[in-house]
Amino acid sequence: PEISLVPPLYLKTKYNPAAGWAVNYSPSHICALKDSSVIMNCTYTYPTGYQIMKVFWTKKLFKEEHEVFPDLSKDPEYSHRLQYLGDKQKNCTIRLSHVTQKDSHKYYFRFITDKHSKKQTGASGVTLTVTDLQVEAPERVTEGDSVRLTCKSSCALTDRATFIWYRNSQPLTERRDRNNQLLLQSVRREDAGRYSCALHGHTYISPAVYLSVMYPPKSVSVSISPSGEIVEGDSVTLSCNYSGEYKCKSRNKHGEKHSDAVTLNITYPPKNTSVSISPSGEIVEGDSVTLSCSSDSNPPAEISWFKEGTFLGSGRIYNISKISSDYSGEYKCKSRNKHGEKDSDAVMLSVMCK
Ligand SMILES: *[C@@H]1O[C@H](CO)[C@@H](O)[C@H](O)[C@H]1NC(C)=O
User: Fold this and answer.
1) What SS3 class is residue 326?
2) What is the 88 CA–ligand 1 centroid distance (Å)?
3) Residue 354's pLDDT is what?
4) Which of 93, 96, 109 to mutate to test the pocket of ligand 1 (most atoms within 8 A of CB)?
5) Which is nearest to 133 in space by CA: 112, 170, 163?
């Protein structure tokens, strides 16, 4: 780390570009997607007659004299990801790659000249905010509805790239859009599935959200057995190929009458069991974390939670308030009704130390 005297020029209020000392950042706010590379554009000027001895970026800006300005390129959290693209004359641009939410911070460029105490920090700095993506979708829709899915980020992305949508991990090529929304004009039952979104040219993909599409019965058919002549006293079976509510209607030339409805309830074992973790980004000790289990079954399933095979508890939602690193590991939920059971895939929860 550099021990340096902070010059009077250091505070923005006392900063005098007319004297030829300046650092400009453009843009001064960057909203970047998790895992991406960020370019922080920067230029600097100084009066003639000075020679630049050292240039570096730092995360701290001190108000005290005789302070230490830690050089980011010496910080193990940054050194392998930080590349100085500028020069020792006027360009102080850097690239930071594989950004994570932990990199959300203000960054400053600092340079040191050959003349004693002529050092300068660009006090305005660049603010970096790193975001992930979340799909917002209605949980249930009915066939024929118009459905809008939104790919949300916590800040307006600086890189205005194209959004890509996936259903069940397959890209929906026909629906690339500059806009962060996916519009399903008249939703079909085949549109049900797990939706996620990403930015074109980026590796990060949002967690998936399940969209279920409900639909009315279609092509109902009824059969009577035995077919042919039925004699008084025979047993007759009427069968219908669909679930739901049934009525019979009897009619003669004098009129018709409906029976009361009977409900046919088709039960099935759990399917599509999956776990989602909220928040989806990096989880730090002390955070509140919610694990949710979703599954499709009739009758509704009972859910139980397991961490590496050890039973944790029951219920669709498993809440952990004030998480600690002991909670890191693989989680699964099991959904069970009287017809069967289905385990979710294991999901990894990693808790970062503070
Ligand atoms: C600074 O250097 C970067 C990387 O070489 C370059 O892309 C950028 O255009 C330069 N900026 C100026 C103002 O010269």
Assistant:
1) helix
2) 12
3) 78
4) 93
5) 163
Specify the pLDDT at position 32.
95
**CATH architecture assigned to 134-214:** Sandwich (2.60)
Report, in this order, helix, strand and coil percent for the chain, each rounded to 5: 5, 50, 45
Q: Residue 104: what pLDDT?
A: 95
**What is the pLDDT at residue 334?**
96
What CATH superfamily is the domain 268-352?
Immunoglobulins (2.60.40.10)
SS3 19: helix
Q: State the Cα–Cα distance between residues 102 and 1, nearest whole angstrom.
A: 21
Provide the residue ranges of all domains of the chain, joining segments of one domain with +.
Answer: 9-131, 134-214, 222-228+235-264, 268-352
Give, in order, the Cα–Cα distances in Å from 289 to each of 42, 138, 195, 278. 38, 22, 22, 6
Tokens linked to 44: 């600097």
Name every protein residue with a CB atom under 6 angstroms from any ligand 1 atom. 43, 85-86, 91, 93
pLDDT at position 74 is: 92
Which pair of tokens denotes residue 321? 């308030």
Q: Which residues of the chain have pLDDT under 70?
A: 1-19, 61-68, 116-119, 174-178, 218-219, 240-242, 244
